[in-house]
């Protein structure tokens, strides 16, 4: 992108510029003064107190209210000139200098002498954002040249005012992840985990943690397949937003690897938490009830919006700091033209075998396949066991259901011995739901709405009995 001018649309500002503005306007809620001074098309105030409270609420999610406000305002035809006029009215000269450091606008309102905003003010405005980016860079890694807020790069680094996604350069993500530091986070690095289609790193974005997934092709897939997954993920999370779906921050496509940036989920995956990875405590029965209901709620939202996930598994259910579950990884998600998500056939079999329904192994794409996979997740929640274990007999967790039904294994012995607070009656109810989900015949499986109703009732009753 060329140098910023007064005519530059706000939605075209580089992410690093927005970050520098948020560093200045977020403290002491300075952004509120700007928001209340923004006019709508009718000339009246664009933002009411209700809007202001909504922007304030994003702080609890680790987001910047300044950025949220500019993302929203950027959906209009507002320009940098419009923003600068408001900043000048409120004597926010350092913020003006971030946008137009050498522009004549910076000479206004600085006193009768018309002195320009000083270089010192400009450096003070930029420095906090640079410091945030550089903080996670390991000393032994060669640091890339520091990016000035409006420097040009190999690709325009803009955010979409319509979608609210940031477009990062590969260079920025390199800095944010400490040079792609592949040491585990517990060892002081940035590596969060690896999967079939990529490696996930912890990144620092203006003092806020994010998860950066660097996509890699699998042995049996092509770069075209990878780009299809990349585009599918972006398109899905662009149109679908729910408290039980992971949120995307942005993406990068200018480097050697395609990258996706998400909100950071400090609780890790459900798979890891059930295994008590890194010494984590075992989840209580109440927590497991809450997680199962929340995950079902996210899946219900997908199905109601004509989307089939196709890779439902505990590794794709992430937990925030309050153990709120969020479904992730939408690279295989298929949208249907039918609101009922009717069955579709495909010649390509995708998914995770240990969770796949019989019809999915034949190439059928149906919401009932998601139900089957969720049944395996419920067995994991009950037992704390992984979906597949080569040293176990049977290897597949779903096959242990047959042993329970044949009375070769008792349900009491199947239950996770580390779990606290469970009662047999409640366990039997969840196991019954899981069994229905795992029915071989897809038409006999419940809908996700029926599953959710059972799990919410189970959670409610246990919550009441725990008081």
UniProtKB/TrEMBL annotation:
Gene: irak4
Family stated for the protein in its record: Belongs to the protein kinase superfamily. TKL Ser/Thr protein kinase family. Pelle subfamily.
Pfam families: Pkinase
Protein's UniProt name: Interleukin-1 receptor-associated kinase 4
Binding sites annotated in the UniProt record for ATP: 214
Domain of life of the source: Eukaryota
Domain Protein kinase: from-to ranges: 186-460
UniProt enzyme class: transferase
InterPro entries with a match to the protein in the record: IRAK4, IRAK4_Death, LRR_Rcpt-Like_S/T_Kinase, Prot_kinase_dom, Protein_kinase_ATP_BS
Organism: Cyprinus carpio (Common carp)
Function: Serine/threonine-protein kinase that plays a critical role in initiating innate immune response against foreign pathogens.
């Amino acid at each position: 992108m060329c140098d910023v001018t007064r005519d530059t649309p706000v939605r075209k500002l580089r992410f690093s510029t927005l970050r520098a503005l948020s560093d200045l306007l977020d403290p002491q809620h300075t952004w509120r003064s700007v928001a209340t001074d923004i006019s709508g098309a009718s000339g009246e105030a664009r933002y009411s107190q209700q809007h202001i409270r909504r922007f304030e609420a994003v702080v609890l999610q680790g987001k910047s209210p300044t950025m949220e406000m500019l993302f929203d305002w950027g959906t209009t035809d507002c320009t940098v000139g419009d923003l600068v006029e408001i900043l000048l009215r409120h004597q926010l000269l350092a913020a003006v200098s971030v946008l137009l450091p050498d522009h004549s606008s910076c000479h206004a309102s600085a006193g009768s002498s018309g002195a320009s905003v000083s270089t010192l003010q400009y450096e003070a405005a930029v420095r906090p954002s640079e410091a945030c980016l550089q903080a996670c860079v390991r000393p032994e890694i060669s640091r890339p040249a520091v990016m000035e807020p409006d420097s040009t790069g190999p690709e325009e680094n803009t955010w979409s005012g319509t979608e609210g996604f940031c477009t990062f350069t590969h260079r920025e993500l390199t800095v944010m992840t400490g040079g792609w530091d592949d040491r585990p986070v517990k060892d002081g690095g940035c590596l969060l985990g690896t999967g079939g289609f990529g490696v996930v790193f912890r990144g620092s974005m203006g003092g806020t943690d994010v998860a950066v997934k660097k996509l890699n092709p699998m042995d049996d897939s092509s770069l075209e397949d990878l780009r299809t997954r990349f585009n599918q993920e972006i398109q899905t999370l662009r149109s679908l937003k729910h408290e039980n779906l992971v949120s995307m921050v942005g993406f990068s496509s200018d480097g050697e690897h395609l990258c996706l940036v998400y909100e950071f989920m400090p609780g890790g995956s459900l798979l890891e938490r059930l295994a008590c990875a890194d010494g984590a405590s075992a989840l209580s029965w109440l927590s497991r009830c809450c997680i199962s209901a929340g995950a079902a709620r996210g899946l219900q939202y997908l199905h109601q919006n004509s989307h089939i996930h196709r890779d439902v598994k505990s590794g794709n259910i992430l937990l925030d700091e309050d153990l709120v579950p969020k479904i992730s990884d939408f690279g295989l998600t298929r949208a249907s033209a039918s609101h009922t998500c009717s069955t579709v056939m495909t010649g390509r079999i995708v998914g995770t075998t240990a969770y796949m329904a019989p019809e999915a192994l034949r190439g059928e794409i149906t919401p009932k396949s998601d139900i089957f996979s969720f049944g395996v997740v419920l067995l994991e929640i009950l037992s704390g066991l992984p979906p597949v274990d080569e040293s176990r007999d049977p290897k597949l967790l779903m096959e242990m259901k047959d042993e329970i039904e044949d009375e070769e294994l008792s349900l009491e012995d199947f239950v996770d011995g580390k779990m606290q607070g469970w009662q047999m009656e409640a366990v039997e109810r969840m196991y019954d739901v899981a069994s229905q989900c795992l029915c071989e015949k897809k038409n006999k499986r419940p809908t996700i709405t029926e599953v959710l109703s059972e799990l919410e009732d189970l959670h409610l009753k246990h919550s009441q009995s725990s008081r």
